[in-house]
Amino acid sequence: MKKALVIIGICMLAGYLIFSVFYFQGKPKDGVCSKFEVEVKNGTDDEQFVETEDIAQYVKEKGLDPTGKQIKDINTNAIEEAILTNQLVKKADVFVTNNGAIKASIEERKPVLRVMSGTGENYYIDNEGRKMPLSRRFTAYLPIATGAIKEDFAKTDLYKFALFLHNDKFWNAQIEQIVVLPNQDIKLIPRVGDHQIILGNLYGYKERLDKLLAFYENGLNETGWNKYSVINLKFDKQVVCTKR
After folding, report:
1. By the 8 A CB rule, do 95 and 102 touch?
2. Which of 17, 214, 218, 222 is the 20 to 30 Å CA partner of 74?
3. Do residues 116 and 208 both lie within one domain?
């Protein structure tokens, strides 16, 4: 039994050594970079904010294009730092591939809300509560916040509310627009139903939306979704409706 275990151990060690030789030989440490590749790993062709060509061109403009350079002389950290100056990029990992190329693997930021403020600002808020620029390549299908929106409010209370909507299957599909009034009360415009929803301030919004969902299920499904022009949730434990 002991002899068998020794033989198995020797075989495993030999296999590891053979694997290591081929694996590390396949990762060129010397030689010339054959090309520079850019990949967006969490995007698709139809839903991608970052242009890979723009990233490659920016790296080239900064004098960091690795193509044709000795691999040992390429500063991958400098390339990563250059890519991260693009505000649509969340993470960047630059490394040498087995075929002697330098590859930049990019993770995009993910927006949960678009803000179009009364002062003319137009930007996204991402899923970490940070301001994010628009992309000329792709426009995200998200709720749009309009009205009296200050940036601090957008990145705190409004962000938390938008993240809640984003993570809830029903409300993510139902809410089309968030109107912020001068006193920071909220009015919602739904995708389904010809009515406005007066939410009030953002304190305790989840409980008020739960009331509205119950009203949708037990009220509007019976009377019709276009019977009321306004559904007011500001009153405690009540849903007050205005007929059109």
Report:
1. yes
2. 17
3. yes
Both tokens of residue 116?
């179009």
- Closest among 242, 119, 112, 210 to 165, alpha carbons compared: 112
CA torsion, ordered 127, 133, 138, 141, to nearest 10 deg:
40
- CA-CA distance, 205 to 142, in Å (whole number)? 19
Burial 229-243 (b: 16+ CB within 10 A, else e): eebbbeeeeebebee
Strand order in the sheet with 144-147: 131-132, 122-126, 111-117, 144-147, 175-180, 186-190, 196-200, 228-232, 240-243
Are 64 and 82 in contact by the 8 Å Cβ rule? The answer is: yes
The DSSP code sequence of 106-120 is EEE--EEEEEEETTS
CA torsion through residues 16, 18, 21, 24, sign: negative
For residue range 94-114, list pLDDT tens digits in order.
999 999 999 999 999 999 999
Sign of CA dihedral 198, 204, 206, 207: negative
Residue 40 lies in a domain: yes
Query: How confident is the model over 28-37, as pLDDT tens digits?
Result: 556 899 999 9
Domain contains 65: yes
Q: Whole-model pTM?
A: 0.81
